[in-house]
Amino acid sequence: MVAAVAIGAAVSTAPVWQLVVSVVFAAVVIRLGYAVISSLAQPAPEPPEPGTLRKVRLTYRCSICGTEVRMTSAAAEEPEPPRHCLEDMELVAPVME
After folding, report:
1. How far apart are CA 15 and CA 18, in angstroms?
2. Among candidate residues 59, 60, 58, 66, the one with its CA nearest the CA of residue 85
3. I need a labelling partner for 5 at 20 to 30 A (CA). Which of 14, 19, 44, 47 fits?
4. Which tens digits make up the pLDDT trace of 39-67?
């Protein structure tokens, strides 16, 4: 009879623990969801000051010898093309981001 009482007590407290675990799990999921959504709502950063380097991704090719150059940072959004073989290089493929 003692075993029946112990089993009955364990069965009656099981739904309480499931409820506690469920509430804690739901609170964690809600906090994570709120953090993700609030991070998406941040305004765009202001443009850098003049003279500082900006990230660009431009590829230039020399029309005379075929040498290619990839520019990854520049002082302006649309920098002047580099020179090679005493001529300006041609823009090959600007990548829009």
Report:
1. 5
2. 66
3. 19
4. 888 787 787 677 778 788 888 899 888 88
